[in-house]
Design goal:
Elements: H1 11-25, H2 31-45, H3 48-60, H4 65-69, H5 82-95, H6 104-110, H7 116-139
């Protein structure tokens, strides 16, 4: 149920969110990996609109249906790379902060594939999709209408 229309949202809010989104997009991290991260975090947060968006974007960028369907159980499959597994574990840990687990082990695994600057950008990507999920759920944005441009 739509609670806040897009024209009622302060222009500065979307401008700020888009600036962060542009930074992430231009960070050099594989766009398909970001879509997997965004989809997984949106699953955890139960954000139907963001799931609709990021699953469509992922397919558009070449992701397979099998991998998207299995994303919530990625640990039980053998078709995610070690690099993708490291990112998914990291995204889950940052999304579920209440678990209060240290993330040194996750950083050690990420450092096999990413520089510290890239890990910082991955951290921002996780924070960004969590922010989008919360805004969209608050606004009551209707799922199912997203179209890839």
């Amino acid at each position: 149920m739509l609670r806040i229309n897009q024209n009622e949202i302060p222009e500065g809010l979307f401008k700020a969110m888009r600036q962060v989104q542009d930074h992430i997009r231009n960070s050099g991290i594989d766009p398909l990996l970001i879509e997997l991260l965004d989809t997984r975090v949106s699953q955890i947060n139960g954000c139907a609109y963001c799931l609709d968006m990021h699953s469509k974007e992922a397919v558009h960028k070449g992701e397979t249906l099998q991998r998207l369907i299995s994303l919530s159980v990625w640990r039980e499959t053998n078709y995610y790379t070690p690099k993708e597994r490291a990112v998914l574990a990291f995204a889950e840990r940052l999304t579920n902060l209440q678990e209060e687990k240290e993330s040194d082990d996750l950083h050690d695994e990420l450092k096999k594939y990413f520089s510290n600057a890239e890990i910082a950008n991955l951290s921002l990507a996780v924070a960004q999709i969590n922010s989008w999920n919360r805004l969209v759920k608050s606004f009551g944005t209707i799922a199912g209408t997203y179209e890839v441009k």
